[in-house]
# Entry
Amino acid sequence: MALPLRLLLDPPWRIAADTLPVRGTPRPREAVRIRLRDSLGNVGLGEALPLPGFSLDDANIAWRALAAIASCVAEGGGLAVPDVAAEAGLAGHPAAARLDAVLAPHAALLDGAPSARYALECALVDLLARREGISAARWLADGRALHKVPVSVLLPDDDGSAVAAAVAAVERGHTVLKLKIARLDRTEREEDALLAALRCAIDAASAGRGIRPRLRLDANGALAPGAVAGRFAALRADGVELVEEPVAGAAQLSLPPLPLAWAADESLCDHRLAKALLALPRERRPAALVLKPAHLGLARCLILAEAAARHDVALIVTHSFDGDLGHAGACALAAALPSAPWPCGLAPHAGLRAALPAQAWLPVPDAPGLGEASAIASSMG
# Structure
């Protein structure tokens, strides 16, 4: 029996990241970086970059978890990467099985530190893909053809800028525009007026293009369960594609058949709830799952994607205002899914150092590992 590959894990280090304004609040961030190395000189990089107020952990939690794992790995002779090809069926996906097998011995340290887990997964995929001379997306796909991923655009929090941003996005070729709804700083009447203005503006901008842009709404669980059906009926007139996370948590299990499609998002962090949502009758289950690898992890996203495919549920991948490494990992995941995703929330954002073009489709990744993101991270310390 072949001995497992062993990788060296350097102690994590912390660097200041740019302050990111989200929903009108400046949010200072700190990144925790890690580096994996093999005996051949290959390197894989990962980064934990929690977003205050949104992430499930913070930089202190991530650093403590990663430092403890680095210490444990140093004492044990390296991070073991076993050959789990024969056991891949347990997870439903070979890449997911391999990532889980590597991190399983450190599960207790990673419990409650999802950004630390994502950093380790990105570093592993970056290094293991480089060893094979392939992109992270091809490593995750494990032989499947990659997808060219359509990109949605999140409209600004400032309602005064939303219409202009929507028109600019449509003119670039984007077909799905996402707006946060059920906000405390906006009445329902104001929300309806904004949606009507958006619908009018993007229909005018798309005239003659052959595709009517769709609006995707995100309630972040803020709608009252008893009011969802009526609110959805009112929103149908605005050409809404779907509503993400209409109500919070387990309340989704009791939603009746609705006049608009909806997607599960934050609720997927609860593994039992995610399983129960997919088991709902077709007319009551979510039309799509929103996969956030920074919250769920790459392995968990792949396993959920396989389950969604079995239940004819669509997939959407989105970033969590990740840094370059995390964003590259999310893009790789989207390209590697078992079925072509719906337009994904992977447009460039202000927290990235790479000058990524704002375009309606992501190119199929072909650079080794996480590509340019690793080079940028290396140059920035």
